[in-house]
Design a protein that fits this description.
Blueprint (H helix, E strand, L loop, with lengths): L4 E4 L4 H12 L16 H11 L3 E4 L3 H5 L6 H20 L3 E7 L22 H16 L3 E6 L1 E3 L6 H11 L3 E4 L3 E2 L1 E3 H16 L6 E5 L5 E2 H12 L10 E4 L13 E2 L4 H7 L6 H15 L1
Parallel strand pairs: 1-2, 2-3, 3-4, 4-9, 5-8, 6-11, 7-12
Antiparallel strand pairs: 7-10
Helix pairs in contact: 1-7, 2-4, 4-5, 8-10
Length: 294
C-alpha cells in the first residue's frame, strides 16, 4: 500500500476489524486516539493540518450510527458539523475520504431492493442525520467513497447483536418482525469491503461516488434472530428457545426502522469487483468473539 491511511475510530468494533484484516495484507493505519470529548471540527482541523494522510476512513461515530439503540438529536448535531469540516479539510488538502453510511437513509416503502439511485427519504433522527452527512460530503469533497451498509452485526456487548443475546439469556420470550427485511452484514465482511475499496484507490482508480453493500441473502429480522439463537446455543444456555413472530407495525422502533431495507449491491460488484458474502457463514466467528469477551 503506497497511500498513507488514517483511520478515525480505530477503537470501535469496525475499526478493530479493519485494523485486524489490514494487518493480514501488511496494510497499516495511522489511528490517532480521539480527544476526551471525541472528534470535533476543531480537533479534526488540527489533526489533518499536522498529518496530511492520503486517505481518511471515517469510522469516528460508528457506534452511534450503526449500533446504538437510540441517539439524541443533540448528539448528532456536533457529529454532522465535524463530518462537514472533515470533508472540507479533505478537499483542501487533496485527501480522499471513505465515509460509511446506512440503509437508514431510505424510508423502507420500496419492497424491492434499493439501488444507489433511489430517492432518500429517511424516517428517524439517525437516518435524517446520515442523509445530511451524505449531502455535506458530496458537496464539500468530490473525491469520496460513500458506502451504505446493511444491518451491521458486531460482537460488542452494547450493540445490536449484544442486546439481543443478553435478552435471550434473561428474558422469557423474544419477538422480531417477520415482515421486515434487510441484508445482515457481519463486521468482518464490512471490513473486507473497506480493504478492497482502499486497494483500488491505491491504484489511483478515480472510483468516486456512492455504493451499497450488504451480506448475501436478504432475510427477515425474525429469520436472522432464529439463526443467531441457533448458533448461540452452542456457547451458552439461553432462557429463550424460539423467537416469536411480530408484525413490523407492532415493533417499538417502527417510527425509525425501515420495513424494507434490502440493498442492491450490483454497482460495488461491477466497479470494485466486490462480491457479497453469505452472512450466515460469518455468524459462528461473530458469536465466538462475543462470548469470549462476554
Amino acid at each position: 500500500m503506497q497511500m498513507r491511511l488514517m483511520l478515525l475510530g480505530g477503537g470501535n468494533a469496525l475499526g478493530q476489524a479493519l485494523i485486524r484484516l489490514g494487518a493480514e495484507d501488511d496494510i497499516g493505519f495511522l489511528a490517532p486516539r480521539p480527544p476526551e470529548g471525541g472528534w470535533d471540527a476543531t480537533s479534526l482541523t488540527l489533526l489533518l493540518d499536522e498529518t496530511r494522510p492520503d486517505v481518511v476512513v471515517n469510522l469516528a461515530y460508528y457506534f452511534d450510527w450503526f449500533q446504538a439503540e437510540s441517539v439524541s438529536a443533540e448528539r448528532f448535531a456536533p457529529q454532522e458539523r465535524a463530518v462537514e469540516r472533515l470533508a472540507e479539510l479533505c478537499q483542501h488538502h487533496s485527501i480522499r475520504l471513505v465515509q460509511p453510511s446506512s440503509y437508514r437513509v431510505f424510508d423502507g416503502s420500496r419492497a424491492t431492493a434499493y439501488s444507489e439511485k433511489e430517492e432518500q427519504v429517511p424516517l428517524g433522527l439517525r437516518g435524517q442525520a446520515l442523509w445530511r452527512i451524505e449531502q455535506s460530503v458530496r458537496a464539500a469533497c468530490p473525491r469520496h467513497v460513500l458506502i451504505r451498509f446493511g444491518w451491521l452485526l458486531d460482537a460488542s456487548a452494547e450493540g445490536l447483536l449484544g442486546r439481543f443475546l443478553n435478552r435471550a439469556e434473561h428474558e422469557a420470550e423474544l419477538f422480531l418482525a417477520d415482515d421486515r427485511r434487510g441484508n445482515p452484514t457481519p463486521i468482518d465482511d464490512a471490513a473486507r469491503v473497506l480493504i478492497a475499496v482502499l486497494k483500488q484507490l491505491d491504484c489511483q482508480a478515480p472510483l468516486w461516488g456512492t455504493y451499497h453493500y450488504g451480506g448475501y441473502e436478504a432475510t427477515t429480522s425474525l429469520a436472522l434472530g432464529q439463526a443467531v439463537l441457533t448458533e448461540a446455543k452452542a456457547f451458552r444456555q439461553l432462557a429463550v428457545q424460539e423467537v416469536g413472530a411480530q408484525a413490523h407495525a407492532a415493533r417499538p422502533d417502527v417510527a425509525d426502522e425501515p420495513q424494507h431495507a434490502v440493498l442492491a449491491c450490483k454497482k460495488i460488484l461491477h466497479t470494485f469487483g466486490i462480491k457479497p458474502r453469505a452472512w450466515r457463514a460469518g455468524l459462528p466467528s461473530l458469536l465466538d468473539r462475543y462470548y469470549r469477551h462476554a
